[in-house]
Amino acid sequence: MALADLSVELDTDSGVFAADRLDRGTRILLDHAPTPPQSGDILDLGCGYGPISVAVASRSHHAQVWAVDVNNRALGLTRDNAARVGLTNITATRPEEVPDEVRFAAIYSNPPIHIGKAALHDVLLRWLPRLDADGAAYLVVQKNLGSDSLTKWLTEQGYPTERLTSQVGYRILQVRRTSTGV
Ligand SMILES: C[S@@+](CC[C@H](N)C(=O)[O-])C[C@H]1O[C@@H](n2cnc3c(N)ncnc32)[C@H](O)[C@@H]1O
C-alpha cells in the first residue's frame, strides 16, 4: 500500500475483499478523508485485510483502532498486517466482541455495499449511534452504487450527511452524529 505519507507491504488473500491490490475507493478515502483524531477510539467498519486500520493507526499512534469484520480470515490478515508494520494500537475483532461501552471519536469505512441496502442500513444504525457527540464517520461509496440515496437516508435518520469530495465516481461522505442519536 503506497500512500503519500505511508508505504507498507500488506498481506491479502483470496476470499477477502480487494485481494490483489488496494481498492480504488479505499485509496480515495485514505487520500482525501480528514486526518484521524489523535486519541480516543476509532472504528474501521468492515476492515478486510486492514488497509484503513493500518493507515489510521499509523497516522494516530495514540488512538485505539477497532478493526471489525464478519470474515475471520480478514481479521487474521488485519492482525498479521498490524504486527508486520509494528502497530500495537489495532484490535481486530468480530463486531459482537467490541465492548458495549466503547464510543468512537471517528469511523472510517469502505462499507459493505454488496450485502444489500437493508443489511447495510442495519450495520450503519448499529455503529453510528456509538459515535461521540462531536465525532464523524467517513464513508467512501461509489456514486453508481447509491451514494446519493445513502446520503439522503442517513440525513433522514438524524445523521446529517454531506459529500466531502467526489473523485472518479466515488464520493466521500461525512456523517455527523446529532443529539437525536442514541
Ligand atoms: C468493501 S469491503 C472493504 C474492506 C477493507 N476495508 C478495504 O478497504 O479493503 C467491506 C468489508 O465489510 C465486511 N462486512 C460485511 N458485512 C459486515 C458486517 N455486518 N459487519 C462488519 N463488516 C462487514 C466484509 O467482510 C468486507 O471485508
Explain this structure to me?
The protein has helices at 24-32, 51-59, 72-85, 117-127, 147-156; strands spanning 2-3, 6-7, 40-45, 63-68, 90-93, 104-109, 131-142, 161-167, 170-176. By secondary structure, the protein is of the alpha/beta class. The protein has a 7-stranded mixed β-sheet with strand order 5-4-3-6-7-9-8, sandwiched between helices. It has a two-stranded antiparallel sheet with strand order 1-2. The structure holds S-adenosylmethionine.
Give the CA-CA distance, first to last residue. 36 Å
How would you describe the shape?
globular
* Count of β-strands: 9
Average of pLDDT: 95
List the helices and strands in order. EEHEHEHEEHEHEE
Secondary structure category: alpha/beta
Query: Spans with pLDDT under 50 lasting ≥5 residues?
Result: none
* Beta-strand percentage range: 25-35%
Largest sheet: 7 strands, mixed
Enumerate the strands of the largest sheet in spatial order, edge to edge or round the barrel. Answer: 5-4-3-6-7-9-8
Ligands in the model, by name, code or SMILES, are: S-adenosylmethionine
Helical percentage: 25-40%
Evaluate the radius of gyration.
Answer: 15 Å
Distinct helical segment count: 5
